[in-house]
Specification:
single chain, alpha/beta, four-stranded mixed β-sheet, globular, metal-binding, metal ion binding, Glyas_Fos-R_dOase_dom, lactoylglutathione lyase activity
């Protein structure tokens, strides 16, 4: 089994598409109500779905990048604002946090071996 994609709700599709393209994702489906992106490496994808009703999304989506610090520096230079710059967390992941234009929480991170094999992994 493999995870295919995660779909985020958005209020403004053109604004959301532009935001994720600035982050570096490749737009592969573009309609007024749905957009899908391919991640630059790894073969994963995610999508956006236009919501006309008010929503609150409590989920966070994580995007992994080995060169996290450099990626964040590039995004800051492009005007992306972060709630948290790269910080080593107690669970051994280095994370940066930002909020997309529709108030979805996005975490950019690098965990290396700890992503799937933390010291407390259950066997």
């Amino acid at each position: 089994m493999n995870l295919n994609q995660v779909t985020l709700p958005v209020h403004n599709m053109p604004q959301a598409v532009e935001f994720y393209q600035v982050l570096g994702f490749k737009l592969i489906v573009d309609t007024p109500h749905y957009a899908r992106f391919e991640c630059p490496t790894g073969g994963s994808s995610f999508s956006l779905s236009l919501e006309t009703e008010t929503f609150k999304n409590g989920a966070a989506i994580y995007f992994e990048h080995k060169e996290l610090d450099e990626w964040v520096e590039q995004l800051v230079a492009k005007g992306i604002q972060f709630e948290q710059l790269p910080t080593m967390e107690r669970y051994l992941w280095k994370e940066a946090i930002l909020i997309d234009p529709s108030n979805n929480k996005i975490k950019l991170y690098w965990a290396g071996e700890n992503r799937l094999n933390p010291p407390w992994r259950v066997n």
